[in-house]
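Page 37, continued from 36.
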């Protein structure tokens, strides 16, 4: 589990496609000794497993294997050398929950429709896939490329988020422009609530 609070911005420094699988090497500022083989790291909102760790110069790197399903339903298929990724280490018991509970299991890809910059902030309008839009509610939470955000407004499949200067500077959201694709994870609670209420209604349907 994660919190949606980004702790580093990594960079893809190598990619090797092996049939339906892609092995990627990501450079970061984490201490190499602090990344265990098998550790979960959120990369642009996708929970990936570190399968190799090392250092190159003054930077740590870790390797991840991105499987066919992940390549099919996330933006990872488009990651190339030089791509910047929001990173977050897995939540530990006792850690501060600064954002909201994020699983790292991306639900789908959203599209940036527009960006409006003002007073150091940025307002984005994004379009969620139709199958996911019912889980996005005003004042609710979503994770966009792994960043925990509060939804300001919703209209049909479109929703609006406001990004403060710190988040623009500390994550890759500051790079987003209209037409870009982002990984979207909806609030787990919304999904569970639908399943619970749906199950409760089913016998009397």
């Amino acid at each position: 589990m994660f919190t949606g609070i980004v702790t580093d911005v990594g960079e893809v420094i190598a990619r090797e496609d092996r049939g339906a699988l892609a092995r990627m090497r990501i450079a970061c500022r984490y201490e190499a000794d602090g990344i265990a083989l098998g550790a979960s790291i959120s990369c642009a909102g996708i929970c990936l497993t570190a399968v190799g760790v090392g250092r190159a110069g003054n930077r740590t790197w870790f390797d991840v294997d991105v499987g066919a399903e992940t390549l099919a339903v996330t933006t990872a298929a488009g990651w190339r050398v030089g791509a910047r990724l929001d990173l977050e280490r897995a939540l530990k018991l006792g850690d501060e929950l600064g954002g909201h509970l994020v699983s790292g299991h991306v639900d789908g890809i959203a599209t940036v429709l527009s960006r409006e910059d003002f007073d150091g902030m940025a307002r984005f309008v994004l379009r969620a896939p139709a199958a996911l839009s019912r889980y996005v509610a005003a004042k609710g939470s979503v994770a966009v490329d792994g960043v925990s955000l509060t939804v300001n407004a919703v209209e049909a499949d479109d929703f609006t988020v406001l990004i403060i200067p710190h988040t623009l500077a500390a994550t890759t959201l500051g790079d987003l422009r209209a037409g870009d694709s982002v990984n979207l994870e909806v609030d787990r609670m919304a999904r569970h609530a639908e399943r619970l209420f749906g199950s409760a209604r089913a016998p009397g349907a």
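The domain at 8-89 is CATH 2.40.30.20 (Elongation Factor Tu (Ef-tu); domain 3). Flag for discussion at group meeting. The mean pLDDT is 90.
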